[in-house]
Design goal:
Blueprint: E1 3-4, H1 13-19, H2 44-55, H3 58-72, H4 76-100, H5 107-115, H6 117-154, H7 157-164, H8 174-189, H9 191-218, H10 233-244, H11 251-256, H12 264-293, H13 304-311, H14 315-328, H15 330-349, H16 373-389, H17 392-418, H18 431-452, H19 456-479, H20 486-489, H21 500-513, H22 518-542, H23 549-553, E2 559-560, H24 561-569
Antiparallel strand pairs: 1-2
Helix pairs in contact: 2-9, 2-12, 2-15, 3-10, 3-12, 4-10, 4-12, 4-17, 4-21, 5-6, 5-17, 6-7, 6-8, 6-14, 6-15, 6-16, 6-17, 6-22, 8-15, 8-16, 9-12, 9-14, 9-15, 13-14, 15-16, 17-18, 17-21, 17-22, 18-19, 18-21
């Protein structure tokens, strides 16, 4: 194990990263609670409800109609299938990392213990896109759906537009801001109350989705799938797969609350895989039902199922679907805001954000869990502002890109976590160099195919990059030994086919990122530049690693990084 010593004060991020980049794969038992952390209280069923509650809904209620009409047409189910496979690949990496590092923070924590502070800050930035910004995007879409329902179903067009969209649909949206503010209040009152709400609404949401699937297949017509070709070809399907990845956001939120889970090494991996598989099955059949109910070019991109039921004359079913969406979609906002303060909490413990984010308030004998109230208020205020003023269409692809990057960082962390450097390896033969090449070549391959695939040069470059990815994976397998044998790991979840499966996940993630427009990629680079400025402008000066290390904070002596993580998460 790497040791975080009180004598290991460093003056640069690289030394801090090195002290935290080789955590042992063996997990450490975690206490039920401690004086400054959040207690463990979430069961396996709570974790699955949290994952499904934050995942299913956005893909069906928000994205299925948009992808069908604008990108993939009758091939929309395959978009969700492709992104689902990608989610399973990275999800297995998340499952193993959460079993071995059972602390709050999800990808941030995994990257911190494997790659160091700087990359952990980038991962936290990606998670902020996934949780805070995506929660705002879903709240915005909910506000648009309420407006559509009032205009179309209730007939309150003039009044609704003047009161709820005074500056047009792309302007100020008071309903989105109101929903976000209500979510902030619910989480401010305590996690126990929000946990009960999550479990109840998740069950209701699954019932609504099953109603849509069964009702959709009862109105299914193969004529609506003719011609059965993607309107924009394979690029449209791949772009739809990237967009649909937004619908799988939520399974890693289970990892984000791992510090509050009972028996996390067993329950968190199971909850992660159950969430991904459950969501993929529901998304595939729901999108198939939708494209079979109505010709894709007539599907309403904002309200797919209600309009499709109405198109077929099933008015009552249209009302049920619309009201079901409006009643259950806010749960995605709740789960997103629940996860975000946990990420900032872990960053504040590491000294990378101000101390206000790590303050646990409201702990009493009746409610020993406490609450991150300041973090909830700060994150909630930002989410409310984004939801009220920024249209959903601007945010969707940027969120998907950030999430895919965070997945690749976690996949890379697992490779470092499970594999060791070959003794005597050169700088260009090191494990970190091979992992870096895998990431760079994967993105280059995607860019070559997407932007230059019509030329012979693009074909040659894409084949060369793909061959390079295969070569680096083979070298990791041949030259970098396992840190811990399977027998020594016991019954802890282990990702199969390592290093090939994480490398495949990295390749798929970056390939999907490359499908996005140059404008979105430019925004992503700008966003990472802001995260970099935060790290070098403030975080590096206040980080625990650069001011004495965890040993000094913990009272002196050498402490194992896993022990610090476990105790910090409570």
């Amino acid at each position: 194990s790497a040791m975080a010593s009180h004598s290991s004060s460093s003056s640069s991020s690289s030394s801090s990263s090195a002290s935290s980049s080789s955590a042992s794969p063996s997990s450490t038992p975690t206490p039920a609670s401690n004086a400054h952390g959040i207690s463990r209280h979430m069961t396996l069923s709570d974790l699955i409800c949290l994952g499904l509650g934050g995942t299913i809904g956005s893909g069906i209620f928000v994205l299925s109609g948009y992808i069908a009409r604008n990108q993939a047409g009758p091939y929309t189910p395959y978009c969700f299938l492709i992104s689902g496979v990608c989610a399973v690949l990275s999800g297995s990496c998340y499952a193993e990392m959460s079993a071995n590092v059972p602390a709050s923070g999800s990808a941030y924590t995994f990257v911190y213990v494997s790659l160091g502070e700087y990359f952990a800050v980038l991962a936290a930035g990606c998670l902020t896109l996934e949780y805070l910004v995506s929660g705002a995007a879903v709240a915005r879409n909910w506000g648009d759906k309420v407006l559509d329902w009032l205009v179309v179903e209730v007939g309150a067009g003039d009044w609704a537009m003047s009161m709820l969209a005074p500056f047009g649909r792309d302007g100020f949206n008071p309903l989105a801001g109101l929903l976000s503010a209500a979510t902030v209040y619910l989480l401010y009152t305590g996690v126990k109350e929000s946990k009960r709400t999550t479990n109840v609404v998740t069950c209701l949401k699954v019932l609504v989705v099953l109603f849509m699937i069964v009702g959709g297949f009862s109105l299914f017509s193969t004529a609506n799938l003719t011609p059965y070709v993607p309107p924009h070809g394979l690029p449209g399907v791949l772009q739809g797969a990237t967009t649909s990845f937004f619908g799988y956001l939520g399974y890693d939120e289970v990892c984000c609350v791992a510090g509050e889970a009972l028996n996390p090494t067993r329950n968190v991996p199971r909850a992660v895989m159950a969430t991904i598989i459950g969501a993929a099955i529901l998304y595939f059949f729901a999108s198939m039902a939708l494209t079979g109910m109505q010709p894709y070019h007539l599907i309403d991109e904002n309200s797919g199922f209600p309009s499709a039921f109405h198109y077929n004359g099933a008015v009552a079913s249209s009302h049920v679907a619309a009201l079901g969406e409006l009643a259950t979609l806010p749960l995605v906002v709740l789960v997103s805001l629940l996860a975000q303060p946990r990420v900032f909490y872990m960053m504040a413990l590491d000294g990378l954000l101000p101390a206000a984010f790590k303050e646990v308030e409201g702990r009493t004998e009746q409610d020993p869990e406490g609450n991150l109230r300041k973090g909830v208020v700060i994150c909630g205020a930002a989410m409310t502002a984004i939801a009220a003023f920024v249209p959903f269409t601007i945010l969707g692809d940027l969120i998907s890109a950030g999430v895919l990057v965070s997945f690749s960082l976690t996949d890379s962390s697992l490779l470092l976590f499970r594999r060791a450097e070959r003794p005597g390896a050169s700088r260009f033969g090191s494990l970190k160099f091979l992992i870096s090449c895998t990431n760079v070549l994967s993105f280059a391959c995607g860019i070559s195919v997407t932007k230059f695939g019509d030329s012979w040069l693009g074909v040659v470059l894409s084949l060369a990059c793909f061959a390079g990815v295969c070569k680096t994976a083979h070298r990791m397998h041949r030259e970098c030994p396992e840190r811990v044998a399977a027998e020594a790991a016991g019954d802890t979840f282990r990702t199969p086919l390592l290093p090939f499966l994480p490398c495949a996940a990295i390749f798929v993630n970056w390939y999907l990122v490359a499908q996005l427009s140059l404008g979105v990629l430019g925004l992503l680079l700008l966003y990472f530049a802001l995260a970099t400025a935060l790290y070098f402008g403030w975080s590096i000066k206040h980080s625990v690693g650069n001011n004495g290390g965890w040993g000094k904070v913990d009272g002196g002596g050498d402490v194992e990084l896993e022990d610090v993580r476990s105790c910090s998460a409570g």
